[in-house]
């Protein structure tokens, strides 16, 4: 992403927040831009705000955990994933993303278990 594109995007997000400060999607998408720019702390802040505004939107929770992992905050990341698994027990996405982080840590057996659970859940749909 070019700097001028990011600046324009952030200006648009600020305008959107002024118009609808309670819209979780704005914070989620701004968090995505911060994430792309490797500003994981600001991304995490926006994912947290998005989750507060719309607790049922699973991807804000997942992305918060991933951003925490990218910041090197392993304990918070794993805790966020465990909370996500409890909050969304019938969704495969958190198991899959959690499995990816476990795989990155070379915790292969645990990762496989999460991937298998994600597949099992998706097959039931």
From TrEMBL:
Superkingdom to which the source organism belongs? Eukaryota
Which keywords fit this entry according to its UniProt record?
Answer: Membrane, Mitochondrion, Mitochondrion outer membrane, Repeat, TPR repeat, Transmembrane, Transmembrane helix
Q: Which GO terms describe its biological process?
A: protein import into mitochondrial matrix; protein insertion into mitochondrial inner membrane
The TPR repeat boundaries are 24-57
Recorded GO molecular functions are: mitochondrion targeting sequence binding; protein transmembrane transporter activity
InterPro entries per the record? TPR-like_helical_dom_sf, TPR_2, TPR_rpt
Q: Which Pfam families does this chain map to?
A: TPR_16 (PF13432), TPR_2 (PF07719), TPR_6 (PF13174)
* Entries under Gene3D superfamilies matching the protein: Tetratricopeptide repeat domain (1.25.40.10)
Membrane topology, as annotated, equals: Single-pass membrane protein
Primary subcellular site in the record, as a coarse category: mitochondrion
Q: Establish whether keyword Glycoprotein is in the entry.
A: no
- Where found? Mitochondrion outer membrane
Q: GO CC annotations?
A: mitochondrial outer membrane
Family assignment from sequence similarity: Belongs to the Tom70 family.
Name under which the protein is recorded: Rhizoctonia solani AG1-IB WGS project CAOJ00000000 data, isolate 7/3/14, contig 12218
The organism named in the record is Thanatephorus cucumeris (strain AG1-IB / isolate 7/3/14)
Q: What is the lineage of its organism?
A: Eukaryota, Fungi, Dikarya, Basidiomycota, Agaricomycotina
